[in-house]
Amino acid sequence: MTTTMAERDAESAAEEEEEAAPPRADSLEEPLPQRVLGLQQTNEVLLAETEMFEKYFNRLDPKDLNSTPSQGPTPTTSMQDLQTRGLRRSRSRGSSTDRPLRLTAAQKCELAQTELEQLRAELLRTGVEAEQVLDTYKATMEEADIRLTEFRRAQVEFERDILKTKTGTCKGRAGAGGLARLPADKILHYMEDRIRARDTLIEKLRLRNGSLKIQNKKMLLQLQQKEEMGEALHEVDFSQLQIENNQFVEKIDERNQDMLRLKLTAASTLQVLNSYKKKLNLLMEEARAMERDIASRQEMLKSIDVETVAVEEERMKAERLNRQLRAQLSEFRVPPVMEYVQHKAQLLDLQNEVCSWERKVEIAKMQLKAHNSTWKRLKTASAQHKDYPVPDSAHWL
């Protein structure tokens, strides 16, 4: 410690003597522009050193400034020694009080090395942050590409399943002057399929997220156990982890390729499924039409059965009537001629009597009407003349 302090005192004394020495004659003989240029370069060097020292001093902890002398020589302790020595010398020599204190070459080297290490650490940290930002941007671009691909695939599927199915009708309606209308049921069915597929994907991602969380917890527990056991990771462990990481990256790439192949297979399968769905819809429509036809024919059969029963009853009635008529026809006997003539004469006499009685009845009705009208007139007259006796109606009858 004493030797280093003595060496530093000697170096500082030599520097002060060099500074206190008068300028050489050859330097005085130099032209003024060269001297100004040299002073500017010296000032630039001093400014760079001052800036470096300020950065170093700003990063220092206040506790380091109050460090004990038992610690090794540090730039702060050397600076304190330099200041104390400068104060002692300023007391001993009054002419050197106005001179600025300067760092030694060792102190400058130590400061420069510290700043270089700090710059390297900052550069490394900046590189790590830049890599993280770059990875984030790459992930964002990949996500955007995936979303764009999914959007284009959905657009193609929508145009294939919804728009192209009604191309002919749309053209016909557009030519007729009307707006083309899309089938609402197919659009709703398509949207329901898309929502169902999205829900399935969300469920898969949720399950995968849960498994990754469980795996992360396991890794954290293993790391905590290793830290508690005091295990330290060596370079071999890091190399092994890098190898495993590369293997996992290759597996992830393989899984991504498999997933792309499965997506393509799913797209082709979806196309085949849509074609089969169309065929199934046509067959279902035909089946419904056939069911309606069968129902109408069954109703027709029921009505025919009812009509058949009614016709059968009429036929049975006609047969009974026919049997009765046949029985009467078989039992019929033609009467004698004289008996027929007598019955015919009796029938004519009876008809004449009926006609005469009908005339008599009509005459009696006319007389009754006349008597009734006379009776009404008499009643009205008796109502007007109360003293006049009213005859009995039975007398008139």
Task: Describe this entry's structure for a reader.
- The structure is a single chain.
- With 397 residues, the chain is mainly α.
- The chain is 85% helix and 0% strand.
- The protein has eleven helices and no strands.
- The chain has helices spanning 2-20, 25-29, 32-59, 62-65, 75-92, 105-163, 167-176, 184-229, 235-331, 337-384, 393-396.
- Helix 3 packs across helix 6 (105-163).
- The chain is elongated and about 195 Å long.
- This is Cilia- and flagella-associated protein 263.
- Keywords: Cell projection, Cilium biogenesis/degradation, Coiled coil.
- Residues 273-331 form a coiled coil.
- Residues 1-37, 60-103 are annotated as: Disordered.
- Pfam families: CCDC113_CCDC96_CC (PF13870).
